[in-house]
Write a structure and sequence with these properties.
By secondary structure, this protein is mainly β. The protein is about 0% helix and about 50% strand. The strands form eight sheets. Strands 24-23-22-21-20-27-26 form a seven-stranded antiparallel β-sheet. It has a four-stranded antiparallel β-sheet with strand order 1-2-4-5, with no helix packed on it. A four-stranded antiparallel β-sheet has the order 9-10-11-12, with no helix packed on it.
């Protein structure tokens, strides 16, 4: 039931701001799990981020949301300026077919978290939220960064990250889990995200290792900000390899179909080369099975800046090619399936 409206400011002409009726901003079937005050635009009155979870019914899955409310000094009322449940990036579906915003399991799933990120100059900041939601038969991080200025809020960045099992082949992950977390000092804070890296080689539910990246604000113009993922710890050779797949089984080695200009592979690897492995690297033995040649996971076990020697067959001649691994970029295409062949970036 809605909470009682505070009487402060009820007198006509009062300049006081009433305490918001939190219950008026979420559905009756939800319960409030937290209310976080945050100054996002430098105004006298702080904004408030409300996290809420649906009440359990016959299903073990309940929806969630994060609602940002702000005081409108002209209309003299509190208004909802952002609702995560209305965002496409916040929608999930269970393996049983139940759909909804940010679904969590009543068997112990955690609800949304809302916090502030001091990442903009002056007195402006951003709302950051995340929730470990259910998607299919696994869990995904639903993450968002919200800007608020001039009484307008917009979802400036969002992502869905699958929380797969980590099959690291005795390689200890370099970053803690779970994630994300706001790091650094105001006004240069960033969002550090750590998640499993499922390469195109891995089984859908098993990742080779964890990786991390930072989400940071980048100015596009006066008062206009965009967000970019930087310092990605996934490694990148700089090629696309063709994998011949028949009846779901990969055949042969990774054959280079394309070399990215300016990548570590440029001038060292050629279209048509067969990449057979990484010299001295452990061969993955994932009991769940691999979706491609093991060399893809062998490369993934190394980090950007590390040197590796690729075992290459070039027109029947065996050779080792020294590569200093680069850093994965958001613009890199993970894979494209075309008929029987799959092109995979590595």
């Amino acid at each position: 039931m809605p909470l009682p409206e505070a009487t402060a400011g009820a007198i006509l002409g009062s300049t006081e701001v009433p305490v918001p009726n939190i219950g008026a901003f979420i559905p009756d079937s939800y319960r409030v799990t937290s209310v976080v005050k945050m100054d996002l635009d430098g105004a006298v009155t702080d904004e408030e981020a409300i996290t809420a979870v649906g009440v359990a019914g016959s299903s073990q899955y309940v929806p969630t949301t994060v609602v940002l409310i702000a005081w409108d000094n002209y209309a003299r009322r509190w208004t909802a300026v952002f609702n995560a449940a209305q965002q496409n990036s916040y929608q999930t579906e269970t393996q049983q077919g139940q759909k909804g915003p940010g679904l969590i399991c009543t068997c112990g799933g955690a609800g949304p978290v809302a916090t502030v990120m001091q990442d903009l100059p002056g007195k402006e900041a951003s709302l950051v939220y995340w929730v470990p939601a259910v998607a299919g038969n696994t869990t995904v991080w639903l993450i968002g960064v919200v800007n608020f200025t001039n009484q307008l809020a917009n979802l400036a960045w969002s992502d869905q990250l699958n929380i797969a099992h980590i099959d690291s082949y005795a390689v200890k992950p370099r970053n803690p889990f779970p994630s994300p977390v706001v790091v650094e000092r105001s006004p240069h804070q960033q969002l550090l995200v750590t998640a499993p890296w499922e390469t195109a080689d891995d089984n859908q539910s098993y990742a080779i290792r964890q990786y991390s990246f930072e989400v940071t604000a980048v100015q596009q113009g006066p008062g206009e900000w965009n967000y970019e993922a930087v310092n990605d710890t996934r490694s990148f050779v700089g090629v696309e390899v063709a994998i011949d797949v028949q009846a779901g089984v990969p055949l042969g080695d990774a054959k280079i179909a394309y070399v990215y200009p300016g990548s570590p592979a440029q001038g060292k690897l050629h279209v048509g080369d067969l990449v057979e492995g990484v010299a001295g690297a452990k061969t993955p033995t994932n009991a769940m099975g691999l979706n491609g040649p093991a060399v893809i996971d062998q490369v993934a076990l190394f980090y950007p800046g590390e040197k590796i020697r690729l075992e290459v067959d070039r027109a029947g001649q065996s050779m080792n090619v020294l590569i200093t691994l680069g850093r994965w970029l958001p613009s890199i295409q993970d894979y494209v399936q075309v008929g029987q062949n799959i092109l995979v970036s590595m």
